[in-house]
Input
Amino acid sequence: MKTPYLTHPSFITVPTAKYGYFTREGGVSHGYFEGLNCGVGTGDLLDNVYENHRRIAAEFSVDAEQLLFCKQIHSTKVITVTEAWQRHARPEADAMVTTQKGLVLAVMSADCAPILFVDPHKHIIGAAHSGWKGSLDGIGEATVDAMEQLGAHAGDIHACIGPCILQDSYEVGPEFPEPFMAQDKANVEFFKPAMRAEHFMFNMPRYIEKRLKQRGIKHISGIELDTVSNEKQLFSYRRRVIADDLQNGVQMSAICLS
Output
């Protein structure tokens, strides 16, 4: 059985790697987690979550043990992966890079931005989980740094920003823009007034794109799909908060060298 996933026509135009932004479609979870919930800490039945992982791994023609993901902590920590680890021993980090074939690098998201990377010339890949804090602190740039340590060149790296919370769904409070403005006054372009006084709507994917461009990434694409408003297709933490119910699934985005 095929498990649906999203791709972008301008990302990975050479057969260096296979990747997919998986949605909530094609899984075995039920209730709040209906579909392809991949979160081991969400409260879903672990047997269902592991079956969902197995289905994703099958899309890459590997065993579930080769599907690798971290304990995401909204940091700028990047792991250089040389071999698979056991599920119970997964490290704390928010990005991974590798030169090893057969290892699938995966990140979880439910409003944060999943970013996949590839240097098609050096055969180096990366995957990053980028929420507002990680984006501000530079998880994208840290991933590029780690890829360059393996021999990649920033100008050759392709990056793709997956489905995440888009600006029309991302209302923030009056204090939120301050650290972005302190970093660069030009970041005002990523905020527009909200309906509520002194609140703003934040454009996270465009901010991420700017930071990647400043780091020297020339090839950036994005899947403009809002997690909050696409309930049938995507999980969204914010949507569940609005509904006053914190039970929610997460989707997985993954990449593997061919």
